[in-house]
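#lab-general

N.A. 3:47 PM
ok so I finally got the sequence cleaned up, no stray characters, all 261 residues accounted for. can someone with queue access submit it? mine expired

B.Y. 3:52 PM
send it over

N.A. 3:53 PM
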Amino acid sequence: MYRTQTPAHTGPAGSRLVELLASLDPKAASSSHACFAERLGRLFDLSDTIALDTATQHRPKGPFTAQPDISETLQADLLKTRNTLLENLSHSFAGKQAASVISLPPLNKDIPAGKRPTFGPYERFHQAHQRQMIAALTNLRLRARRHLCAHSAELARLAELDAVFEHGLSAYVRRCFSAMPAFLEKRYRVLWQQGQHTPPQEWMAANGWLSQFCQEIQMLLLAELDARQEPILGLLDAAAGATTDADTRLTDIDDKESTTP
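B.Y. 4:20 PM
back already:
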């Protein structure tokens, strides 16, 4: 099966995902982040550059209705979406059976000792969780932009820029995260070599090689969730900042009026 080579970075320097990849395989995150602006620019083609230029000059006309609780609304939506994804992950690895749960591949304990089980079911399991994340966070990001567009011209411009960046970077993001199965397969083979002489009944025990592999899948999916939600956290921070600025301006006006003779 053809594999895309795992890129050196799948997130910003110091991100949880990069740190975890480096701890499992130092070669997976060893290059520097020099010339970040130049490398970022290479990810945009001519049409993306035109769209970005248009977005920077975008002057939304409204109508706008300032939402005093926009920050709380976005945060509640993010927490609800994240908790649902975390719950689904937890149920999957706990072996809970339900229509909405992506089941962890069962272990065939009758497999001959010394024969490595196929990696395919674990790849499909991992990719199913990735698709679930993409669907949930893409919809969340769209909802966040709608709130920003309705709040003020400043936040509406930010939403327009965010839409352009999401589209322009989509191929790069997809390429980075689609390389994760190749990394997992490499870890699968390494751990198998360490535990292949143990009987299949012990593979999912506390210290079993397959149990450790499942723990690594879970950790990587949790770290991937953190990385994928970063753009939404940026929108939330912008909304919080806009609300704080508005409150500050109102306070200044009240102070001036209270000191005016």
